[in-house]
Design brief:
Blueprint: E1 9-10, E2 19-25, E3 33-36, E4 40-41, E5 52-61, E6 64-68, E7 72-75
Antiparallel strand pairs: 1-4, 2-3, 2-5, 5-6, 5-7
């Protein structure tokens, strides 16, 4: 609750993962996705204030996706 418009989202390393796909959106389940090489992500542009966001991560081993994490949610501060 009350996250900045440029939050840093982070997660635990998954065994055998070579990359991650982060899903982040204002709809649940999230549709927008981003390729991430590490275990954190900070949006390159500010998120809309006053919105609720949903996100989850899928660990990838090469081109093979693994199971998805739980879906997390947060609110961005501001209107």
């Amino acid at each position: 609750m009350g996250q900045s418009t440029t939050p840093t989202l982070s997660w635990q390393t998954a065994a055998g993962a070579t990359s991650y796909t982060l899903y982040l959106d204002t709809v649940n389940p999230p549709v927008q996705h981003y390729a991430v090489s590490g275990t954190s992500y900070t949006p390159g542009t500010a998120l809309q204030g006053g919105e609720q966001f949903y996100w989850y991560v899928v660990a990838n081993n090469g081109i093979v996706p693994g199971p998805a994490s739980s879906t997390w949610t947060f609110w961005v501060t501001g209107a």
